[in-house]
Amino acid sequence: MNILAFAASLRSGSYNRKLLMIAVEMARDAGATVDLAEFREFDMPLFDGDLHETIGMPEGGREMISRIEKADGIMIASPEYNYSIPGTLKNAIDWVSRARPMPLRGKSGLIMAASGSAIGGIRGLWQLRIPLEGLGVYLHPDMFALPSAPGAFDDEGKLKDEAMAKRLRDNVISYVTMGTRLAEPVKASLK
């Protein structure tokens, strides 16, 4: 299974990037191949239908689409901004949604969040499910939310709480299993 993974955060000290790095290692241990991207690689202007008509897909959008097309699934670690998703992530989804054929349709996905709050960004994850599922992504039913993120990581970038690390590992392994099963018929039909 090939996974495109990125943290939808631009901040250099992002807790979501730290969380994603742990999940990527777990996915690789479970047998997945992971294309780890930096969200900055997908830089795009604000979506504007007129701009889309005149210039087409911006370079960052073309890059994101190309990487999605090569993947069987996506893993996104997203911050929660004001009880929802970051505008930069929604903007990227809006641009990608204009591609034909729709590159997200039929992909599997796992979403996660790390937050300084006591509920770990779960409200933003519920909001992220809406456009992704609407565009045809088969999201893993379990989302992972890491609360109190500023104190959750040790000096090596690992989760301090072993029960939390086990829950993340279980989610990632379950997702890789699900995503692999979903990808098998698609790969068989391409032969």
Radius of gyration: 16 Å
Estimate nothing, just give the exact number of structural domains: 1
What is the terminal separation in angstroms? 16 Å
Number of strands: 6
Give, in order, the helices and strands: EHEHHEHEHEEH
Largest sheet: 6 strands, parallel
Average pLDDT, rounded to a whole number, is 96
The residue ranges in which pLDDT falls below 50 over 5 or more consecutive positions are none
* Fraction of residues in β-strands: 5-15%
CATH structural fold name: Rossmann fold
Care to give the gist of this entry?
With 191 residues, this protein is an alpha/beta fold. It is 44% helix and 14% strand.
Describe this structure in words.
It is a single chain. This protein has 191 residues and is of the alpha/beta class. The protein has a single domain (2-189), classed as Rossmann fold, CATH 3.40.50. 44% of the residues lie in helices and 14% in strands. It has 6 helices and 6 strands; from the N terminus they run E-H-E-H-H-E-H-E-H-E-E-H. Strands 1, 2, 3, 4, 5 and 6 form a 6-stranded parallel β-sheet that branches. Strand 3 (73-77), helix 4 and strand 4 (108-114) form a beta-alpha-beta unit. The longest helix has 28 residues, at 162-189. The chain is globular. The model has no long low-confidence stretch (mean pLDDT 96).
